[in-house]
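Lab notebook, bench 4. The sequencing result for the construct came back, and we need a structural model before the next group meeting so we can plan mutations. Quick request posted to the team channel:

Model the 3D structure of this chain.
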Amino acid sequence: MEINRTRTLFCDLLGLPKGKYVPPDLAKSGHIGFAKGAFATTFDRDLLTIPGTGVYNGLPDMDLFLENKRFKSWQDNTEIALGVLKKNNTPFDLCSRSLLIKTIDDLKKIDLKAKVGIEYEAYVFEQDDEGIWSPYNTPGAFVYGTGPSNDPKNLIAKIWDTACQVGIPIESINGEYDNGQFELTLSFDDALIACDNSFLFKIMAKEIALKEGLILSFMPKPIPDRGGSGLHINFSLEDKTNSNIIAPDGKLSDIAKNSVSGLLKHHESLSALLAPTVNSYDRLQPASMAGYWANWAEDHRLVTVRTSSSSPKSSRIEHRMADGSSNPYLAVSAVLQASLLGIKNNYLLPPQEDLDGLENVRATRHVPSSLKNALEALEKDKTLRKSLNELLCDAFITLKKDEAKRLEEKNVDEIREYYLPFI
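Done. Here's the predicted structure in token form:
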């Protein structure tokens, strides 16, 4: 098949895949120009004075410097190119992919490398006779279901086949807890590869659904009386010999314990970056399989940080707070930087959660009650902000404070209508 266009893409702070189609010969030049104002717009395209975007300086240019690698596209005659954003040949502060590369370098300085696996959860919506988007009609669906009872329109098979065709590795897909809800798990890989795959997978899956007249929604809580949808970030750490050091002897290593301590220390501020919508805090509630409490335990799905140490080779840490509205590069960077802070500062690790997590819990700290409060927690956490990028955090906070304010008087249905086309 002849390639006659290159789809150049980057992920903005809202998690949206922005870019341009350009001729392949132009893409070979190595960089494509964009306005910095691409980071200054809301979901409904209002232009805000976001730090770092130059709104009052004529909305100057930035360049997406493309990597040589090209990804196969699910669109005919198309290839995909990713890269990093720069201004005057220096990294653009609001580029989340550059932040992840910096985070990988920070780990490398202490002889560590992160392997990452992303688990998405999402609901399918279909239009009724009046054109209203309603939950997928799957009365016979069940947990861990596969086949037409869970997916009568065969959407998941089309997503799977397309992922195989374009080389996005899937570990598993199955029916989740509620009707019309699916878990979509991608394969473990180096952190940047895993995030590139998850970024492209989400775009692809949503576009395949739209082609079928459906919406695949990664909103955290699109249906009030059904369960929420998360984005679980699984990671392991390898040493210079490429050995997994999370639990080399069948029990958590000191580095793994310190990683967990960092995640718990920065629990409240992490929520702003990992659960970045008003709707996110309808999902993050007590007595749920989400990351509400600042707690951890071995193989326990009712805590935020779940460890798995039974197999030295596949041992990992699973962070269960994030949802699919987050930018995957930013979310993974935040989790890894919080873990790195725990390693560097040797924070005190609280005892494991030993209660059920539903009706009984020992933890006393939890995520803030709203996006507004989560953003305030991030503002106050200077240590985490500095470890990431302070200008990026300032831009994110400004953008999301506006979002929280414009939705504060909206009801549940209006909030869903605001987010559904985008997330």
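The chain has twelve helices and 18 strands.
Will bring this to the meeting.
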